[in-house]
Design goal:
heterodimer; A: 410 residues; alpha/beta; Rossmann fold; two-stranded antiparallel sheet; globular; B: 337 residues; 2 domains; 7-stranded mixed β-sheet; 5-stranded mixed β-sheet; 14 strands; 18% strand
Chain lengths: 410, 337
């Protein structure tokens, strides 16, 4: 026996489990407007503290304050609010559609709408997102047709992916949205490769990688960071820390590191932590990071601190692993409410207009759903052809697949 | 025509491809300044610049993952995995990403990339430098798998692979880099400079993917082989005096079943050989296909010669390697059947 006694294994546990009172006491939240905004060419070692704080713009009175404020005209902020409301209405409809058996599976981004919606607006045409399955806001804020998204979700005869991919795993090159794999972390390093290609070609496009808190534990996350660092790839590496990876709290993936953003330090990558429920803060930080990439200054790691209000997917039940009231106790509030209050304070929005737009967007989503359903839903109406199943495995169908297709009778 | 070793032919293929298409980029571990541990990329960085031929961190998933992103962008990466034995960290990127990108995005994005890797044994490399993992790739829908057996094919197939619009696994039998090793390990190996297949056209030419070739015509029994085993099979035919027809598959997937079927229909007998382990090896697929297409002309059970189902050993290299002795035994058995 060692003089220090037997060893014991440390297995981190979240602050609260079902039945417990939610406790976010360990989430240190600085007041809005208190974090400095460095120039984009700042050496990473001079801004290490930005990985441990939270950049916030909107304060609790709905005002935009501090050095990261004042960057977004009211018209753009209004559009941001509309985008987020559309995403929320879309999610609600699709959740219902899944419950009605119109599709097999759905994933909401409830509570996280600001991140994708605000980020998308900071990109330029030609840039490419490598999203996870919870960034539908990139498509909706980017103006991708709701009907096309629904056709994919319903795997119907008009599905752009001809029924081959699980619902919500969209692909839309025209809208800067890379095909979602569904595997975790694999696409982070592809974003770096895409950005390297732009640099090799001497183009001006940049890439954005997306990953969740849980998937940062994958080796591909670390491969992405080392390649991005080595070749100073023009890429923004986004980590959406929504506290929960299915039932696993973020502390399991984070381990002894103070924050996910701090992972960037070992790679010499500037790392910022931002209030993910603050549309203005997300947009300001996205612009900062995207400008760095565009100016050939290299990658930036951004951690969005947020909370996954909904279940992981329609196959998940969070009441089995976290306190029911935890979402209400989340100290960063709701992104839609916060931007709404800001715009009302600015005198460009009102409760009435908000209610009116909520009704409008509800009708828009419903109309899109009706149109999509004319092309079928998963188990009824028009379906992708069986022939389509055999196509597109290769550019040209090889002989063995031709034989198999014939055997299948198509 | 020029005289080339397989290393020179592979290097020449990349030189031709990089010259013709500025989108071709080459990278991997030790690939840039040094030119690769087998020297296949020697001089490419000096010729084409460091942004088109460069060293990478030791991260196979990073190499293939970034290559997929580049291919989706519109480049044609040709990356090197230092040994096929090291490809496993990249397996997820290859199987879940490169192979399926065209299919799952309905052609919205594609991954035209070539992944080169030295394969096979015969160099006392032990279990980390000798494996033949081809079956792990032929089992995956969306990949093409190529194994050249000589400098001529290596150059023509590699140019075809780089120009192809699908992801390609390009396995280079490392024991063939400098000469046509035929498995007689205690005899000197003729260098490629004295072998007709060391005569390689200069400039651009391709050997089409998916086409096998009869390497040694014969009437008694068909031998299906690829890579190093092509030369071993020829040596076995010569040692036994059996009039074997040796088919070099060259591309495992898509497979040239037509050439195989035509030969087996003529000979009525077949032996399948590979270095890789026996169970669930690519030979099992070949045997199944021959059984399906040629059952009624077969005069004997189809033979299989392969690596034993053990990890690749070190000291026992020549007990493990399926040399001409074992292939010869299989030929005799097929003839006796």
């Amino acid at each position: 026996m060692s003089e220090h006694g037997p060893l014991s294994l440390h297995v981190p546990e979240p602050e609260g489990r079902p039945g417990d009172k939610p406790d976010f006491g360990d989430v240190v939240i600085p007041a809005a407007g208190t974090v400095a905004r460095p120039p984009v060419d700042v050496p990473p070692e001079e801004i290490r503290e930005l990985a441990y704080t939270i950049i916030r713009v909107l304060n609790r009175h709905g005002e935009a304050v501090g050095p990261w404020a004042g960057l977004l005209p009211d018209g753009d902020a209004l559009q941001g609010l509309r985008d987020m409301m559309k995403v929320r209405a879309f999610d609600a409809r699709m959740l219902t559609a899944q419950r009605q058996g119109k599709t097999s599976f759905y994933m909401q981004c409830l509570g996280e709408e600001a991140i994708a919606c605000a980020f998308q607006k900071a990109l330029s045409p030609g840039d490419m997102n490598f999203p996870t399955y919870r960034q539908q806001g990139l498509l909706i804020a980017g103006g991708y047709p709701l009907v096309a998204m629904m056709n994919q979700i319903f795997s119907n005869e008009a599905d752009p992916l001809t029924g081959r991919q699980l619902p919500v795993m969209y692909s839309a090159r025209s809208h800067g949205f890379f095909s979602i794999s569904g595997n975790l972390g694999t696409q982070y390093v592809q974003a770096v490769g895409w950005a390297m290609a732009s640099a090799i070609k001497g183009d001006t496009r940049i890439a954005a990688g997306w990953i969740g808190d849980g998937a940062t534990a994958e080796s591909d996350f670390h491969a992405a960071l080392v390649f991005a660092s080595t070749y100073r790839a023009p890429v923004v590496l986004n980590i959406v820390n929504n506290q929960w990876a299915i039932s696993t709290f973020q502390g399991i993936a984070r381990g002894g590191a103070g924050t996910f953003a701090a992972r960037g330090h070992g790679f010499g990558i500037p790392a910022l932590r931002v209030d993910g429920n603050d549309y203005l803060a997300v947009h300001a930080v996205a612009r900062w990071a995207i400008e760095r990439a565009r100016r050939n200054l290299g990658p930036t790691l951004v951690e969005y601190v947020t909370y996954r209000v909904a279940a992981h997917s329609t196959s998940d039940d969070p009441s089995a692993y976290r306190p029911k009231e935890e979402s209400d106790a989340w100290p960063l509030g709701d992104p839609v409410e916060r931007l709404k209050n800001y715009l009302i304070g600015r005198g460009v929005w009102s409760q009435d207009r908000h209610a009116q737009y909520a009704a409008e967007v509800e009708s828009e989503v419903l109309a899109a759903q009706k149109e999509a359903e004319r092309h079928g839903t998963l188990h009824s109406g028009g379906k992708p052809s069986m022939r389509a199943m055999f196509e597109g495995v290769y550019k040209e169908m090889p002989p063995h697949l031709v034989r198999q297709r014939r055997k299948a009778g198509v | 025509m020029a005289r080339m070793s397989m290393i020179e032919a592979i290097r020449d293929a990349m030189t031709v491809a990089m010259t013709r298409d500025p989108g071709v980029v080459v990278f991997g571990e030790d690939v840039g300044y040094f030119g690769g541990v087998f020297r296949c990329t020697q001089g490419l960085q000096q010729k084409f610049g460091a942004s088109r031929c460069f060293d990478t961190p030791i991260s196979e998933s990073g190499i293939v993952g970034t290559a997929i992103g580049m291919a989706a962008y519109g480049l044609r990466p040709c990356v090197e995995i230092q040994f096929a034995d090291y490809v496993y960290p990249a397996y997820d990127q290859i199987v879940s990403e490169a192979a399926r990108l065209r299919y799952r995005s309905n052609g919205d994005f594609t991954a035209p990339l070539t992944i080169r890797m030295p394969t096979g044994g015969g160099i006392f490399g032990g279990q980390t430098h000798s494996q033949s993992p081809e079956a792990l790739f032929t089992h995956v829908a969306g990949l093409k798998t190529v194994v050249p057996s000589n400098p001529y094919d290596a150059k023509g197939l590699l140019i075809a692979a780089i120009e192809d619009d699908d992801p390609i696994i390009f396995l280079e039998p490392k024991r063939l880099y400098n000469g046509p090793f035929d498995g007689w390990h205690d005899r000197p190996v003729t260098p490629w400079s004295k072998h007709p297949l060391g005569e390689v056209p200069e400039g651009h030419f391709t050997v089409p993917l998916g086409k096998a070739i009869v390497r040694r015509p014969g009437a008694a029994v068909t031998v299906l082989a690829y890579g190093t085993m092509v030369h071993v099979a020829i040596a076995a035919a010569e040692a036994t005096g059996i009039d074997a027809e040796v088919i070099d598959l060259r591309t495992l997937l898509p497979l040239d079943l037509e050439t195989i079927e035509a030969s087996v229909r003529r000979t009525g007998r077949c032996v399948v050989v590979h270095e890789a382990t026996l169970t669930s090896g690519f030979g099992a697929e070949l045997v199944a296909l021959i059984q399906e297409t040629c059952f009624y002309v077969l005069e004997a059970p189809i033979g299989r010669v392969a690596g034993w189902d053990t990890p690749y050993p070190h000291a026992q290299e020549w007990d493990y390697f399926p040399g001409p002795g074992r292939v010869g035994d299989a030929l005799r058995e097929a003839m006796a059947g």
